[in-house]
Amino acid sequence: MKITPLHPDGTECTHATRPSGKPRDPDAAVPPDGAHVTARFRRCGHGTGPLHPGDQKAVAEFTAMLTARQRPTPWTGRGDVAVRIGQRGLERGRPLPEQQPDADPVALVLIHPDTETALTGTLHCARTRIHGAWRTPYRLLTRAHAGRTITPDLDLEA
To answer: Rounded to the nearest 5°, which phi and psi values hold at 150?
Structure first.
């Protein structure tokens, strides 16, 4: 999903801004309405009224992701699993069909969060790396969603 920054009057915002929403170039012309892009939701200005539907969707997805990340659903040993990759990332893992629910390490394959195609071969994942059962809001934290690939030398055993 791509969010286009908009001015309060609905026109597309094209001036370069800092993450704070202020112009990057101090000599840049400020739009006539004095509005700037707010980095958080990519909404231009501090206008009154309801959020743009695109902004509402982005806010709802982000809030759902934060809630799911803070309160993971425990994994029962069946179904897809959210596996911690690095500091903040999660990936969707699917245990092998013959996998025992209480096995440690868990034999699984990392799959694309949307298409469910395999991204890796069989990996052995330590139970300490399992964040919980897979939930749809986690897709925002995956490398596939960000357009990055998973390194072939990924080690999930530690």
So the answer is: -95, 130
Among candidate residues 63, 80, 70, 96, the one with its CA nearest the CA of residue 130: 80
Q: 109-144 pLDDT, tens per residue?
A: 999 988 889 888 888 988 888 889 998 888 888 888
Question: Cβ distance 46 to 64 under 8 Å?
Answer: no
Please state whether beta strands 43-44 and 81-85 pair in parallel, antiparallel, or not at all (unpaired).
unpaired
Integer CA distances (angstroms), 84 to 20, 37, 72, 74, 105, in order: 30, 33, 12, 14, 14
Domain presence at residue 23: no
CATH code of residue 127: 2.30.30
> Is residue 82 situated within a structural domain?
yes
Q: How far apart are CA 72 and CA 82, in angstroms?
A: 9
Query: Tens digits of per-residue pLDDT, 100-117?
Result: 888 888 889 999 988 889
pTM of the model: 0.61
Domain with 113 in it = 73-141
